[in-house]
Design brief:
It is a single chain. The chain has about 70 residues and is mostly helical. The chain is about 85% helix and about 0% strand.
Length: about 70
């Protein structure tokens, strides 16, 4: 909605992808320091990985659209 162009949208989604990857890194640290329980960790990592898949799919779709 707030992207000024398709390229800007892809850029914003790429930033989101980077942030989602970083979230998984921090979840791993929280698990490794026993701050986050095993079940909560599994749930949150599952959600983050699902978000990663959606972002990757969105980015790939937009890139294919822009090549046409």
């Amino acid at each position: 909605e707030f992207a000024q162009s398709d390229a800007d949208f892809v850029h914003k989604m790429s930033i989101s992808l980077k942030e989602a990857n970083e979230t998984i890194y921090w979840l791993d640290l929280l698990k490794d320091t026993d701050y986050l329980g095993k079940e909560e960790y599994k749930k949150q990592v599952h959600n983050a990985k699902e978000l990663l898949r959606m972002l990757i799919s969105t980015i790939n779709t937009m890139k294919k659209k822009n090549k046409k």
